[in-house]
Design brief:
By secondary structure, the chain is α/β, with parallel strands linked by helices. The protein is 32% helix and 30% strand. The strands form four sheets. It has a six-stranded mixed sheet, with helices on both faces. A four-stranded antiparallel sheet has the order 1-2-3-4, with no helix packed on it. A two-stranded antiparallel sheet has the order 5-6.
Length: 257
């Protein structure tokens, strides 16, 4: 059976063959190993995927700390206007850590915990999303707000919700994200901004990490910091300080990425 589906950037379309568990990029004829679940191909938002996308001249938006706080304020207004009063906030690690803590502050919620969903390539090189650190706090009958930074593919939210519902009953769960991309297969209950045209979003707590992946994915990487800075701007619209670029290069030189 062939299943046609859309993979994150609007210009990439894949055909998925359920028998061979392979997906083909119809525009560039690349082949990807995928995971089949309920006749559905899943490609998760992972560092593996980052490296693919960041080598494709994808546009990038860097969110400042001031922008981040304003996005949180928008979320809080929506949550309060709907009369939602969570007594427990669950962050989806890692992207949801800081948004969840700030929302807890704005909403006056004292109970804060997390679960970690990890994306990696298994022995057959397929991208998998699994819950690595489960919920340990008592969540029975809690009013939970599940928080992540972005709903990109939607797979992370769906897996987190499935995990929570398997562990607890009688629980009210709402979801929130700073950004919701319309290509996502899951729409959070609350989101501060809707992204109509897909692009990569770098949050202030992940600037170095994303820069490392962008730089490592470069074809014909320039030898100088100035050349790398020019290529980042030309290919992705990224502008960062010389000091920030030095920090990213220091990480790369240590072989951490």
């Amino acid at each position: 059976m062939l299943l046609l589906f859309r993979f994150i950037p609007n210009h990439l379309h894949f055909t998925y063959n359920a028998a061979s568990q392979l997906a083909y990029d119809n525009s560039a004829h690349h082949r990807w190993n995928v995971v089949a679940s309920s006749n559905k191909a899943i490609l998760t938002n992972s560092l593996w995927q980052k490296a693919i996308l960041m080598n494709d001249n994808v546009a990038c938006e860097i969110i400042s700390w001031d922008q981040f706080y304003e996005l949180c304020r928008k979320l809080v207004r929506q949550i309060l206007e709907q009369g939602v009063e969570p007594d427990l906030i669950v962050a989806i690690a890692r992207g949801g850590y800081i948004p969840a803590r700030v929302l807890a502050d704005f909403l006056g919620v004292m109970r804060l915990t997390s679960l970690r969903i990890e994306h990696y390539r298994g022995s057959h090189k397929e991208p998998l999303a699994v819950v690595k650190d489960t919920l340990t706090m008592d969540t029975q009958a809690a009013r939970i707000l599940l928080v992540d930074d972005v709903s990109d593919t939607g797979d992370t939210f769906r897996l987190a919700l499935e995990h929570i519902r398997e562990k607890v009953t009688g629980t009210q769960i709402h979801t929130a994200a700073l950004h919701h991309k319309v290509v996502s297969n899951y729409q959070p209950d609350f989101y501060a901004e809707k992204i109509l045209e897909w692009h990569w979003i770098t949050y202030p707590w992940a600037v170095i990490e994303d820069l490392c992946v962008f730089i490592k994915s470069m074809d014909n990487r320039p030898n100088s910091l100035e050349g790398i800075a020019e290529k980042l701007y030309r290919d992705h619209g990224i502008q960062v300080t010389h000091h920030t670029l030095e920090e990213a290069m220091r990480i790369l030189q240590r072989g951490l990425w």
